[in-house]
Predict the 3D structure of the following.
Amino acid sequence: MLLLSHRQEPFCTARVAGALESRGARALRLDTDDFPEVLQLSAALDERGARLLLDGEALQVDAVWLWRLWPPRIDARVESGRRQAAQREAATCLRGLLDLLPAARWIDPIEVVRAAENKPRQLRLARALELAIPPTLITADPAAAAAFFAAHDGQVIAKLQTALDLSMRGGGGLPTRRLRPEDLPALAGLRHCPMVFQRWVPKALELRIAWVDKRAFVGALDGAQCGVDWRHESTAGWQSYELPAEVHAKLARLMAALGLRQGAIDMIVTPDGAHVFLEVNPHGEWGMLERDLGLPIAAALADALLASE
């Protein structure tokens, strides 16, 4: 069982490895940011076929857990003008090498994950499946963003589509934030970096749902204490929550449409009890739910990796 992670991930990967080993499977962890300077992966393609090699020996892999494909660490001595090219080439090479494992069971295949990360696609599919979504504008046009702000009486949040920091707590990068009237002049910067704007959704609870093969492991935060972006502002503790059957069924259809067996889904429960879909991160963090609530997410992933398709 091949586990693809990164050097700064101490919890989730170890939990999945332990769950696999307790079931009699061998778990091999590869930290993808170690490629190519430390992690010696290579390909052999000849009359014997196509093989993925680790330290010169062919890898025999039954299943792959794709937790993170992390940007490669490039030696600081590489001149700055060539570092970006070296990182791009290393990342491309790693994805190509992993394609030499087509017979393995993947959770989830690289190409499926990359397609599923498309946030407009997620929202389009969610809406088609009758999940509630907030009115959304994705734009690099300052005038369009200002008009959206006015149309929703200033009740608007702004966020990026990609995470700048991945951890159980967060705190780095750029948080989701409420847009204020005094922020409107700064919208000129959208010309350099498009953003997502959504109508603010009142919160009774904010949910993080760890999804594994149609099973939902849910943690909830008190909406009054979790702030605009719980990763940066929450003072609330995680509490258990059970999804209504109708919401669970719609999420199952959404995850099937995206082709995902795992993911971290974010939703808001409004004061009147409505469930509003925000997004799904195929590699989203769930360690705090297992740690704080005792949810058996790693065990579920181990079972999914060991099960035949």
